[in-house]
Amino acid sequence: MLEVKDLRVSYGAIEAVKGLSFCVEQGEIVTLVGANGAGKTSILRALSGLVPASSGRILYQGRDLVGVAPHVIVGAGITHVPEGRLVFPNLTVEDNLLLGAYLRKDRAVDDDMERVFSLFPRLKERRSQEAGTLSGGEQQMLAVGRALMGRGKLMILDEPSMGLAPILVEEVFRTIVEVRKSGMTILLVEQNANMALAIADRGYVLETGRIVLSGRASELAAMDEVRAAYLGR
Ligand code: ATP
User: Fold this and answer.
1) Which of 59, 113, 182, 194 counts the most CB atoms within 10 A of its CB?
2) Domains of the chain, CATH where assigned
3) Interface pTM (ipTM) of the complex?
């Protein structure tokens, strides 16, 4: 579904992504794990067209997305759940969800909102509440729910566990597993390698803009160097 080849991203003289390649097959959960500054956010922003790739190719369903405008990329089925959730605090839960569907021309939006509410009953209870008054975990669910409203095919999530209490982190990861069951393919960027590798099929470990390890998530989680560097064991 997605094949990234020799991707590079630079900010002036700083090269944040130094020529990396990875792929995501349809129906998979793939995770990119790495410490602060490894380049994870820059990769996702390049996939969404929010920062330019300085070289390389981003093939999505066979089409190269380098140089394609962000709204066209959303229209092609890639939905980005950004770091820090970024819901609209003064809009209601319902209006935040509707914004996730703004590119759609079909009329099944109400049905999809019900589907999101069945996945997240807590959002349903709070549908008329301003998003800024939700807890951190609820805002994260709203950000995922909003992405689902776009009817995308590939969801890319940037550090969904950030800033959440451990119990909410578990809830958010359970949600990601549920979203995959609904047919979505998922690319998950995380510093919380422990949780990410527990739900992913495959993973890539990043260090300062390069992939240093890759493989089945269960194999990566069992490797001494991954455990020592990222799993705190
Ligand atoms: P974190 O987990 O801390 O968010 P990350 O792995 O997502 O880190 P990036 O945010 O992609 O990493 O940053 C990679 C490198 O690029 C860092 O050294 C960062 O300082 C640099 N960088 C990111 N955005 C910019 C920018 N707009 N201008 C200049 N440098 C940037």
Assistant:
1) 113
2) 1-77+152-233 (3.40.50.300), 83-149 (no CATH)
3) 0.92
